[in-house]
């Protein structure tokens, strides 16, 4: 009979993190904390200060996370970690984003013109050039 390992949960930087024992499908507590901090937009130095370790330790941990999740960038690792259920944003963030009723209208903005369009007829330009050479 196969036993399933239930992950342990904790909260870090506005994310619910899950971790499990070694050699399981779940990350370690340190890896879960690092991926949650990366998802929150923190730098390696900020994460190291929070954990009380060297930024190189965080770099090595994030490199291991990227390898384990088969991701090439931090954004891809965060998306894959969310898909696997390692981290999940807390409900408060989702509720705040749904407060504004005009989110659909805000999503479809008209493009702003950055360049002024100059209109001149071709014949007017020829007259100007013709008067210079006459």
Automatic annotation (TrEMBL):
GO process terms (BP): regulation of DNA-templated transcription
InterPro entries linked to this entry: Sig_transdc_resp-reg_C-effctor, Tscrpt_reg_LuxR_C, WH-like_DNA-bd_sf
Annotated Pfam families: GerE (PF00196)
GO molecular-function terms, A-Z: DNA binding
Residues in HTH luxR-type domain copies: 24-81
Gene3D superfamilies on file: Winged helix-like DNA-binding domain superfamily/Winged helix DNA-binding domain
Protein name stated in the entry: Regulatory protein, luxR family
Species annotation: Vreelandella aquamarina
